[in-house]
Specification:
The protein is an all-alpha fold. The protein has one domain: Helix Hairpins, CATH 1.10.287. It is built from 3 helices and no strands. Helix 2 packs antiparallel against helix 3.
Length: about 100
């Protein structure tokens, strides 16, 4: 493996580790959503890195990353709407206080 690819993969690994740690240790739903977005962004970074080093003339990794970013934005909007509804019904966004969804 080319040594210069490691300079690009190390930040991606750090982002993934921080995202997993944040997702596991946080109790707030917004903080968990931010951690999940960090993991998704590190996956997008990997798509771009491997596309550049494995297929330098093609753009499939970049196009796939653009679609993934658009899907992540839609997922974030829906997740924030769900979190707002949970906060309105329960009064808190702590995951330990939310035990079931009520209508």
């Amino acid at each position: 493996m080319d040594l210069s690819i490691l300079w690009y993969l190390v930040p991606s690994v750090i982002m993934t580790a921080c995202g997993v740690y944040g997702f596991i240790t946080r109790k707030n739903l917004i903080a968990m959503l931010v951690s999940l977005e960090l993991i998704l962004n590190s996956a997008d970074l990997n798509f771009v890195i491997f596309n550049r080093f494995l297929f330098p003339g093609s753009m499939e990794g970049m196009v796939f990353t653009l679609f993934a970013v658009a899907l992540a934005a839609a997922e974030t909007a829906i997740a924030i709407a769900i979190i707002i509804n949970i906060y309105r019904s329960v009064g808190d966004s702590d995951i330990h206080k939310v035990n079931k969804m009520k209508f």
